[in-house]
Design brief:
Blueprint (H helix, E strand, L loop, with lengths): L14 H8 L6 H9 L8 H11 L4 H5 L3 H5 L6 H22 L8 H12 L6 E7 L5 E9 L9 H10 L4 E7 L9 H17 L2 E8 L10 E3 L9
Parallel strand pairs: 3-4
Antiparallel strand pairs: 1-2, 1-3, 4-5
Helix pairs in contact: 2-3, 8-9
Amino acid sequence: MSNMMIAEMPACERPRERLLEFGAGALSNAELLAILLRTGNSEVSAVGLARILLDKFGGDLSQLVDATVSELQELKGIGVAKAVEINAAFALANRLSKIKGKAPLKLASPLSVVDYMRETFRGKRQEEFHVLFLDTKNGLLKDNCITVGLLDRSLVHAREVFRLAVREAAAKILLVHNHPTGDPTPSSQDLQCTRKLIEAGKVIGIEVVDHVVIGTVRSGGSREYVSLREDGLVVF
């Protein structure tokens, strides 16, 4: 068999066609690998080469996942391109598993919000207004930057904020923005904007948890942030 490609295999044995018809769950590990390999070598088909590759690493995917590009290339029929593609596929799968297995970041206090946003705001010369979408346990679902460089808080539209909140299935939202001057004292517009969003949230049924304004820590010991809820500046 001379470097048989998947397309040249009998229809009942083509892993691509089987995946399209039955789904990835119906394919063996060797068949899934064969789709990445595309071709075999002068002696075996792509599926055959995939089986040899698995056997080389004890038939265990967990060992194959850790194989280096150089180790993959030791097998006849796997060059640099194929080895890199296999390595990249496993790297993506590994990252995805970490994302899925990771519990949402809990934002249970103003300080936890500051710790989360500090690096985002570091060195920024313009204001950024973010909305953090939370689940019922204050776990972070998503962070959306709503406006950049706009001092006029009337441009933060409730309909846009809550449209995104509904799309993310958020139970609560948390408002946060930076003051590049370093002074976190909220402006009258900040307070007015917060009140409007709180009222809109009550109508829709999505709670506004807090509005945190982040500045910078100064040598005089001034605060790095102001929490409108913590300081009682707005009734939530």
